[in-house]
């Protein structure tokens, strides 16, 4: 009973806020130029896709822009095909095929899309090329940024940013040219006659290209692009990725070119001379020797840089190479495997469905709406009449003449226009009455077809039989 309970001091302790931020600021990456086989392949693909991107809006088909994605008019023109909101399945198939093609390539060869064909990578290397030509090589650019502003630095920086803006402006005009007539776009923009929204989007995409390729660069790949985050779900131990061979390369260390392989091994050194060139040429600034990282875009720049060093040292190439985890472990890569077969099967299936959907697509759509105010009515001549509203959508690129008829009734009489001309892309609404002698039909509901047939001489005859119902209540 004489024991006392100790009193615990619970006075709150004031926590001091850290004086430094809990994150590290981004360090600018000065990418070193590199030469090699993979660099030549990357430049080849970059030029090919850049040329395709620049040429496509200027192609003409039957006197009009061959590919025009007119969002305002809700129509996508692709040569002889015009897609409308009703053709959503075609657009969906295109996206599905593109997605599974990306999955298939990623499972087989990693992020080669990012390294060789992605627009962000292509435009980033274009901007880096201007940097090298105007400001000099990597070391010169680093020294230039450390210098205080003088005339030499001012004109080099000004010329570089002017070149960047011109590339961004041409890119933006070409991109917007996919959504509006590109020849008028260039004329109206440079003569200051374009509309507000047209000028806004050109300036907006110019700023996006200038910021992404000039300043954000690797941030787009490592933080904003979702592909870097979910790519691991498609990788397996047989996926070809840019990898460093630690068994052959470790321990790292500098050495003289005159050292023989026996002398190198006696010192416990591997083939890696720790020159750090693989880091200097990497557009995302990573060290591939630390293993597979989500920042790696598989551009192969480090492969070319390392092979150049290995050639000078007289060592075997491909210390860094496109290889698989199985090969690094001494095994053999399995090209044919269940995951790859699955992606290939779905890709082939979706491609066939896309081709089938386009091949069987009819550039005519008919919609029938019955008059709901009355089921049927008797005319002055004693005929039984049903009223309909016929909507004809001409999804072709030419004006066409259509003939309307009725199938499924003995001797139907049509009151209304039976031959109409519908302009390209137009939805023509036509009120129509169908009458029949009551002695020729039975009481109840009968399925009939309102047939719309194209009479245009510029294309093959098209016929669409749209089902509807004819009602006779018997009064």
UniProtKB/TrEMBL annotation:
<keyword id="KW-0411">Iron-sulfur</keyword>
<keyword id="KW-0812">Transmembrane</keyword>
<protein>
    <submittedName>
        <fullName>Cytochrome c oxidase accessory protein CcoG</fullName>
    </submittedName>
</protein>
<dbReference type="Pfam" id="PF11614">
    <property type="entry name" value="FixG_C"/>
</dbReference>
<feature type="domain" description="4Fe-4S ferredoxin-type">
    <location>
        <begin position="262"/>
        <end position="291"/>
    </location>
</feature>
<keyword id="KW-0813">Transport</keyword>
<dbReference type="Pfam" id="PF13746">
    <property type="entry name" value="Fer4_18"/>
</dbReference>
<feature type="transmembrane region" description="Helical">
    <location>
        <begin position="185"/>
        <end position="210"/>
    </location>
</feature>
<keyword id="KW-0472">Membrane</keyword>
<keyword id="KW-1133">Transmembrane helix</keyword>
<dbReference type="InterPro" id="IPR009051">
    <property type="entry name" value="Helical_ferredxn"/>
</dbReference>
<dbReference type="InterPro" id="IPR051684">
    <property type="entry name" value="Electron_Trans/Redox"/>
</dbReference>
<dbReference type="Pfam" id="PF12801">
    <property type="entry name" value="Fer4_5"/>
</dbReference>
<feature type="transmembrane region" description="Helical">
    <location>
        <begin position="44"/>
        <end position="61"/>
    </location>
</feature>
<dbReference type="InterPro" id="IPR032879">
    <property type="entry name" value="FixG_C"/>
</dbReference>
<keyword id="KW-0479">Metal-binding</keyword>
<dbReference type="InterPro" id="IPR014116">
    <property type="entry name" value="Cyt_c_oxidase_cbb3_FixG"/>
</dbReference>
<dbReference type="InterPro" id="IPR017900">
    <property type="entry name" value="4Fe4S_Fe_S_CS"/>
</dbReference>
<dbReference type="InterPro" id="IPR013783">
    <property type="entry name" value="Ig-like_fold"/>
</dbReference>
<keyword id="KW-0004">4Fe-4S</keyword>
<feature type="transmembrane region" description="Helical">
    <location>
        <begin position="90"/>
        <end position="110"/>
    </location>
</feature>
<feature type="transmembrane region" description="Helical">
    <location>
        <begin position="162"/>
        <end position="179"/>
    </location>
</feature>
<keyword id="KW-0249">Electron transport</keyword>
<keyword id="KW-0408">Iron</keyword>
<feature type="transmembrane region" description="Helical">
    <location>
        <begin position="340"/>
        <end position="359"/>
    </location>
</feature>
<dbReference type="InterPro" id="IPR017896">
    <property type="entry name" value="4Fe4S_Fe-S-bd"/>
</dbReference>
């Amino acid at each position: 009973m004489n024991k006392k309970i100790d009193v615990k001091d619970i006075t709150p302790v004031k926590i001091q806020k850290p004086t430094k931020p809990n994150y590290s600021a981004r360090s600018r990456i000065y990418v070193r130029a590199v030469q090699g086989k993979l660099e030549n392949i990357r430049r080849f693909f970059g030029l090919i896709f850049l040329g395709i991107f620049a040429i496509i809006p200027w192609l003409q088909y039957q006197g009009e822009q061959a590919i025009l994605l007119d969002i305002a008019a809700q129509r996508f023109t692709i040569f002889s095909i015009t897609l409308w909101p009703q053709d959503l399945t075609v657009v969906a198939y295109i996206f599905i095929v593109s997605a599974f093609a990306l999955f298939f390539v990623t499972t087989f060869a990693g992020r080669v899309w990012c390294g060789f064909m992605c627009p962000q990578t292509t435009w980033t290397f274009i901007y880096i090329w201007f940097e090298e030509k105007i400001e000099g090589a990597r070391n010169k650019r680093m020294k230039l940024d450390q210098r205080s502003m003088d005339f030499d630095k001012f004109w080099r920086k000004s010329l570089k940013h002017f070149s960047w803006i011109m590339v961004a402006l041409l890119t933006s005009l070409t991109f917007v040219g996919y959504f509006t007539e590109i020849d008028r776009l260039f004329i109206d923009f440079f003569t200051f006659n374009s509309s507000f929204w047209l000028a806004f989007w050109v300036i907006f995409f110019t700023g996006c290209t200038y910021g992404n390729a000039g300043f954000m660069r690797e941030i787009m790949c490592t933080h904003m692009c979702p592909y870097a985050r979910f790519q691991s779900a498609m990788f397996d131990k047989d996926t070809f990725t840019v990898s460093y061979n630690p068994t052959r390369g470790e321990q790292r260390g500098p050495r003289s070119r005159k050292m023989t392989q026996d002398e190198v091994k006696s010192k416990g050194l591997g083939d890696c001379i720790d020159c750090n060139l693989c880091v200097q040429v990497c557009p995302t600034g990573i060290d591939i020797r630390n293993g597979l990282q989500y920042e790696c875009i598989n551009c192969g720049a480090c492969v070319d840089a390392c092979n150049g060093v290995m050639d000078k040292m007289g060592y075997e190439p491909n210390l860094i190479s496109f290889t698989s985890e199985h090969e690094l472990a001494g095994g053999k890569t399995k090209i044919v495997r269940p995951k790859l077969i699955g992606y290939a099967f779905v890709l082939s299936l979706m491609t066939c469905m896309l081709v089938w959907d386009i091949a069987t697509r009819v550039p005519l759509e008919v919609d029938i709406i019955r008059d709901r105010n009355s089921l049927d009515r008797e005319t002055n001549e004693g005929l039984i009449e049903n009223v309909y509203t016929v909507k004809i959508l001409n999804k072709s690129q030419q004006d066409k003449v259509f003939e309307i008829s009725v199938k499924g009734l003995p001797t139907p009489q049509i009151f209304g226009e039976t031959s109409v001309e519908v302009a390209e892309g137009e939805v023509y609404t036509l009120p129509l009455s169908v009458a029949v002698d009551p002695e020729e039909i039975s009481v109840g509901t009968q399925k009939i077809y309102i047939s719309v047939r194209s009479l245009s001489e510029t294309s093959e005859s098209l016929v669409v039989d749209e089902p509807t119902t004819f009602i006779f209540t018997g009064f």
